[in-house]
Design goal:
This protein has 204 residues and is mainly alpha-helical. The protein has one domain. Helix content is 68%, strand content 0%. The radius of gyration is 16 Å and the shape is globular.
């Protein structure tokens, strides 16, 4: 029963909405009423509070890494399923009506714990695309597309690569609306300004 317990716990840990919790504790209001309404670090950054955004990023990534680290003690199968479950928990938290974040930071933490070289390659891809375009969503999608290839090249075919593929597909599915906005030229860019963003439903 331990593998089942660990996978369920991975989902529950993933479902902790750090972005929502931290913005409320910081007196920034409900993050779901700001910018895109998303609970992730990119939208938290739109409040103008870089420290809270950084803390959200670290904790969202940390819960992904923690789930994989614990599950790895029970074997490769449990590790792979928990890696996917923790991202599913972030994306579909039951406490928020199953409407959570896009899973990018949590997926990043998962990859770093699952296979460090793969996580570093994916992180470098995100940074390069984000720096060049200032589109967080485009950076996330580029990283997600390349993640399974990195996993295959760096770790070979196996359960870890299968887990990376599953996580990458989930991240891409959560960015469907972003794809359409990018094609229409309506996507919001990353801003490091301090002015608090107004509610803009649908933008991430």
């Amino acid at each position: 029963m331990w593998p089942v317990v660990v996978v369920v716990l991975a989902f529950l840990v993933g479902s902790v909405p750090f972005g929502l919790v931290f913005t409320r504790l910081a007196g920034l209001g409900d993050i779901r009423a700001i910018g895109s309404g998303n609970i992730g670090a990119t939208n938290v950054l739109r409040t103008g509070n870089k420290a809270v955004a950084a803390l959200t990023l670290l904790c969202d990534a940390g819960k992904g890494a923690l789930a994989v680290a614990v599950a790895s003690r029970l074997g490769a199968e449990t590790e792979a399923v928990a890696a996917f479950a923790v991202v599913v928990g972030h994306v579909f938290p039951p406490w928020l009506g199953f409407n959570g974040g896009k899973g990018v930071a949590t997926a990043g933490g998962v990859l770093l714990a699952l296979a460090l070289p793969v996580g570093l390659a994916v992180g470098a891809t995100w940074l390069a695309v984000a720096a060049a375009t200032r589109y967080s969503s485009l950076a996330a999608m580029a990283a997600a597309v390349l993640a399974p290839l990195y996993a295959l090249l760096l770790t070979g075919a196996g359960l870890r690569t299968a887990a990376v593929l599953a996580v990458a597909l989930l991240v891409l599915l959560r960015h469907r609306s972003n794809m359409l906005r990018l094609l229409r030229g309506e996507e919001s860019r990353i801003s490091l300004g301090r002015r608090r963003a107004r509610p803009q439903p649908g933008i991430d």
